[in-house]
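Hi C.,

You asked whether I'd gotten around to modeling the 218-residue construct. I have! Everything is below, sequence then structure, no commentary in between.
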Amino acid sequence: MLKHKLLTLMVCMAVLTASCQSSVQEQEIEINEKHKFEISLCDFKYNGRVFRLGGDIQELVGVFGSYNRYIDYAHAYVWDSIGVGVLCHHITEKTSEMTICFDCCEWIEPDEKESTLPFICYQGGILINGIPFGNGKTMEDLNAELEKNGSKIHFSYWPIMKDYNCEYDCEYDEVKSELISDQNHAFLIRPNSPKTYAFFTISDSREHKRLEREKNGK
């Protein structure tokens, strides 16, 4: 009798353990290895190749491959095949913003040819400072993991825009940060819910600030 009870207990524990493991696995973010983005403060990679914003669109074409659509009125290039859209500065045509769409493409009407959002969602997750991020992880968990590994990235909630943002200074070329002031870059994350996100955006305001300085004679 005792042997039977012990056997039953062991089976129940095994089932419970398997259930817990399954639950944990369901919450894990699966990194998109076909279109792998690795993001840190001033180091952006796609499938192991470094890319940046602030240059000509051909720099990104050389990394991402050919884009699927160009939207003239918005100065936007869209890689529907990846789930990525890029905006260019309206005067200089330098790349100024890149968005990875996790599910915002679902808002698009099938015949909306002029949309700057990709028609196909980005599948899976990206890496932010080596930490998997995508739908299924709370912002609190992401911030805790970033802090644990010593990252300077920390997302704060911006109630007016209903975004999570992280602004920072980045100087990865000949432009000196003292000429641009601090916080010339930003990461923006638009939430749909605590665990699902519309998109992740990298924004570069250096070109805009440069033109503002020239306009003001500084």
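If it helps when you're writing up: The radius of gyration is 21 Å.

Thanks,
B.
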